[in-house]
């Protein structure tokens, strides 16, 4: 069985590598003639292809709970705060969400051949993490502009991928942005490590749950206190969705 999973993982990796090159080149060529929303959906098209390839080749399926909790309206703002266990949710969120998303990511990713070059044509928030104060000011400034135009800002509050059954340190950058802009926070739990473990090359078939929580108002809140509420909801939901991964008692 391991060899089958390994073979499938190799095929899916090759599938992504082969398809990203022409797709990224098409984005680079078309970008001068498209607006930011059109560029986003063009790039999201490759992510959907990668996710669909993961379903067909790897046997990983998605189950989304709580779509009704997403804000309604073309310019309704939202800051999505997502549990981070693997690369899978990074690919899936644009493929699943009905609105354009803007990731907050380190600028080094822009130098990744083809993938990063295409990302650089998208209207997202890339920061220099060595300049913390300036970086957050940039997040607020660009975040407000993006939220005003109907783009949802997405952040992983733990900052890095966390092994299955563990809890990382939730940082308050996402709730600080929400408080500064007045946008509601949407907590999202994800069980991707069941199929695509952190830093693992070999993936396993199965179902990944995306559970979308109810919007949490940010106005009049303190960022740290708001993040504690987000963390409590996400971690409780993770234990409900994937109870065998967490210590009992």
Quick rundown:
With 249 residues, the protein is of the alpha/beta class. The chain has 7 helices and 7 strands; from the N terminus they run H-H-E-E-H-E-H-E-H-E-H-E-E-H.
Characterization of the model:
This protein is of the alpha/beta class. It has a single domain, classed as 3-Layer(aba) Sandwich (Glycerol-3-phosphate (1)-acyltransferase). 45% of the residues lie in helices and 14% in strands. It has seven helices and seven strands. The protein has helices spanning 2-30, 36-58, 87-96, 115-119, 132-148, 173-181, 223-241; strands at residues 60-65, 79-82, 101-106, 125-127, 152-155, 185-190, 206-212. The protein has a seven-stranded mixed β-sheet with strand order 1-7-6-2-5-3-4, sandwiched between helices. Helix 2 packs across helix 3 (87-96). The longest helix has 29 residues, at 2-30. The protein starts with a helix and ends in an 8-residue tail after the last helix. The model has no long low-confidence stretch (mean pLDDT 91).
Fold topology:
Layout: H1 2-30, H2 36-58, E1 60-65, E2 79-82, H3 87-96, E3 101-106, H4 115-119, E4 125-127, H5 132-148, E5 152-155, H6 173-181, E6 185-190, E7 206-212, H7 223-241
Parallel strand pairs: 1-7, 2-5, 2-6, 3-4, 3-5
Antiparallel strand pairs: 6-7
Helix pairs in contact: 1-2, 2-3, 5-6, 6-7
């Amino acid at each position: 069985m391991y060899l089958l999973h390994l073979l499938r993982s190799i095929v899916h990796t090759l599938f992504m590598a082969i398809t990203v090159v022409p797709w990224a080149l098409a984005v680079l060529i078309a970008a001068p003639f498209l607006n930011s929303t059109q560029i986003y959906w063009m790039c999201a098209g490759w992510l959907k292809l990668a996710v669909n390839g993961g379903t067909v080749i790897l046997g990983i399926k998605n189950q989304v709970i709580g779509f009704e909790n997403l804000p309604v309206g073309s310019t309704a703002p939202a800051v999505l705060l997502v549990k981070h266990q693997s690369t899978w949710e990074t690919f899936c969120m644009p493929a699943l969400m009905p609105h354009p998303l803007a990731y907050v990511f380190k600028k080094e990713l822009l130098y990744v051949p083809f993938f990063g070059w295409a990302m650089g044509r998208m209207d997202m928030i890339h920061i220099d993490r060595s300049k913390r104060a300036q970086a957050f000011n940039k997040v607020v400034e660009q975040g407000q502009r993006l939220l005003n135009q109907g783009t949802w800002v997405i952040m992983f509050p733990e900052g890095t991928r966390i092994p299955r059954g563990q809890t990382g340190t939730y940082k308050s950058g996402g709730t600080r942005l929400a408080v500064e802009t007045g946008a509601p926070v949407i907590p999202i739990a994800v069980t991707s490590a069941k199929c695509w473990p952190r830093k693992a090359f070999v993936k396993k078939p199965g179902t990944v749950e995306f559970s979308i929580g109810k919007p949490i108002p940010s106005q009049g809140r303190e960022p740290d206190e708001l993040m504690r509420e987000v963390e409590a909801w996400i971690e409780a939901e993770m234990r409900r969705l994937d109870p065998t991964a967490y210590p009992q008692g």
